[in-house]
TrEMBL record:
Gene Ontology CC terms: cytosol
Organism: Mycolicibacterium psychrotolerans
Protein name per UniProt: Dihydroxyacetone kinase family protein
GO molecular function, one term: ATP binding
Regions that span the bilayer: none
Domain DhaL stretches: 350-544
GO BP, sorted A to Z: glycerol catabolic process
């Protein structure tokens, strides 16, 4: 996270509120001094105002929850700092309704202290006030007298109480309901990277490579426990067990998968799927599942999991519509979805040929290097796509297959199962070689591989339009074909393979004319094109498969690729 947008610290709270009021639309306004956001159009049946707040850095909580069906006011402090009591007092006075104000407070010392002082000031003015203290955090369960921290369960509390307030519940009813939800709630959070400090951009704490902080807080507090990274289902199972060890939940559970700021929505959805399956394995019925970034910690790379024992009495409030910009809009859980595969059944037990398995292992070994090359010009997924295509070919393979059959498996895998540009283009290459090799055996394979590469060049150029010099896989492929043709040879040999490797290396000096690197211009200079490098490596691999091999090629590949991953 850059510090650029928060460099003017004297105005960041009010500027954030101004932006939130614009996002929220009509009916939501903000006060600059003291800073708070408030709703000017409460529901007609609402008798109690809901007010919450806390340090900035947890957006969209709380300001994004102001509006119809949500909070009446939200008070932001500075980053990870509680609001001061005048903010809270003035916000409560501004929105107080006939039956008073309910304060929703996360259990942090500063928050509790300032909300409590504001509550005393309000009561002195004759305004009825109650509090709901949220203390759901599993990671601080042994914190002694101070109690557990308040974290992402606050989102669920505010959503349900917002709907209940719009239905006309009294102050006492809302306070009792909120406390009941809190008592049913538990949250555990993990992180692989801390947030960056707004002051200097450094990470708030370090996480050892290959490990996770298990039980982090939302203010940059490291966990008491560091665990080794495991597979997703193992990690989710451990989190679910921590939260449900004493949970019976006869009416099921409400689940919130919450991103801590640096975790993408796709990852959260994967996490949600694994959570639903883990709960089902433990005979706990999911009534609703929400996944998104609601209670963040700046850009912390992590996720929190909240499990709440459901109560049929308040589930309608959880599902109720609202008019806030950022509260979740939950749906009833439809049940565990079966993983569907529309492809024909294959005999996975048959295995693949030794050559194809070895090719898959070598490709996997180069995955990170290809991703790094691609990152210089694009999104860094080339190695992933290459490894994906080969893994699908292995699924198609049979232990008795020969090289020709394996090339066919590779062609169909890349064409049918890999997207982007690498999928179809490498599919065309494998397909052209396979079609020429279909009737060839033994020594003739060296001839037909070269002929297949020539046909592949034509097919790739017809499909993608690239020419030599455009910084694509065509540079390496054309160099192999042209070198052999220029020397009048009709078999793939050492010289043509070396020509391909040299052409791939030369793409490091090119400004791209085609492909993703064309969007970044000269910024890609200094790094060879990932596709060209992969094509050169493939040509060397095919040459080796038909009996080639030399120290010169090994050395050239070692210069092009890391020594530990070269062929």
């Amino acid at each position: 996270m850059t510090v650029l947008f928060i460099a003017d610290r004297s105005t960041r709270a009010s500027a954030g509120l101004s932006g939130l009021s614009m996002v929220a639309g009509e009916g939501v306004e903000y006060s600059d001094d003291p800073p708070f956001l408030f709703n000017t159009r409460p529901a007609q049946r609402r008798r109690v105002a809901l007010v919450s707040g806390g340090g900035a850095g947890h957006e969209p909580m709380h300001g994004g929850f102001v509006g119809r069906g949500g909070l009446d006011a939200a008070c932001p402090g500075e980053i990870f700092t509680s609001p001061h009591n005048r903010q809270i007092y003035e916000a409560c006075r501004k929105v107080a309704l006939a039956d008073g104000v309910l304060q929703i407070v996360k259990n942090y010392t500063g928050d509790v202290l300032n909300f409590s002082i504001a509550a005393e000031r309000l009561r002195a003015d004759g305004v009825p006030v109650e509090q709901v203290l949220v203390d759901d955090d599993w990671g601080s369960r042994d914190a002694g007298k101070v109690g557990r921290r308040g974290t992402a369960a606050t989102v669920i509390v505010e959503k349900i109480l917002g709907a209940a307030a719009d239905d006309g519940s009294s102050l006492a009813e809302l306070a009792a309901l909120g406390r009941d939800i809190v008592a049913r709630s538990r949250t555990v959070a993990i992180a692989s990277e801390a947030h960056r400090s707004p002051a200097d951009g450094d990470r708030a704490f370090e996480v050892s490579p290959g490990s996770l902080e298990f039980g982090v807080g939302i203010h940059g507090e490291p966990a008491r426990e560091s665990i080794e990274i495991s597979d997703l289902h193992g990690l989710v199972g451990r989190m679910v067990d921590a939260l449900t060890v004493d949970l019976s939940a006869p009416d099921g559970v409400v689940v919130l998968v919450n991103g801590l700021g640096g975790t993408g929505q796709l990852e959260l959805l994967h996490f949600g799927d694994a959570t639903a399956r883990a709960l089902a394995d433990r005979n706990l019925q999911v009534r609703s599942l929400v996944a998104g970034a609601y209670c963040t910690a700046l850009d912390m790379r992590g996720v929190s999991l909240t499990v709440v024992e459901a109560d049929p009495q308040w589930l309608p409030h959880w599902f109720a519509e609202h008019g806030t910009p950022a509260l979740p809009s939950p749906k009833a859980f439809p049940g565990i979805k079966a993983i569907r595969d529309v492809r024909p059944d294959r005999d996975a037990a048959a295995g693949a040929s030794r050559w194809l398995q070895d090719f898959a292992e070598r490709t996997e070994g180069l995955r990170d290097r290809f991703n790094a090359l691609d990152q210089a010009a694009g999104d860094g997924d080339f190695g992933d796509n290459l490894a994906l295509g080969v893994s699908h070919a292995v699924r198609r393979g049979n232990v008795d297959d020969d090289l020709v059959a394996d090339l066919g498996h590779l062609a169909s895998a890349f064409l049918d199962d890999v997207g982007g540009s690498s999928g179809p283009l490498f599919g065309l290459v494998f397909g052209a070689i396979a079609s020429r090799a279909d009737d060839a055996t033994g020594d003739a394979l060296g001839d037909v591989v070269l002929a297949g590469l020539g046909e592949a060049l034509t097919a790739v150029q017809r499909a993608g339009g690239a020419q030599p010099g455009d910084r694509t896989l065509v540079d390496a492929l054309a160099a192999v074909v042209d070198d052999a043709g220029g020397r009048g040879v009709d078999v793939l040999d050492e010289a043509s393979v070396l020509a391909g490797i040299g052409a791939a290396a030369s793409t490091a000096d090119m400004v791209a004319g085609r492909g993703r690197a064309a969007y970044v211009g000269e910024r890609a200079i200094g790094h060879p094109d990932a596709g060209a490098v992969a094509m050169a490596w493939l040509c060397a691999t095919l040459w080796q498969a038909v009996g080639g091999g030399s120290a010169s090629v090994d050395t050239a590949l070692g210069d092009l690729l890391p020594a530990e991953s070269s062929s």
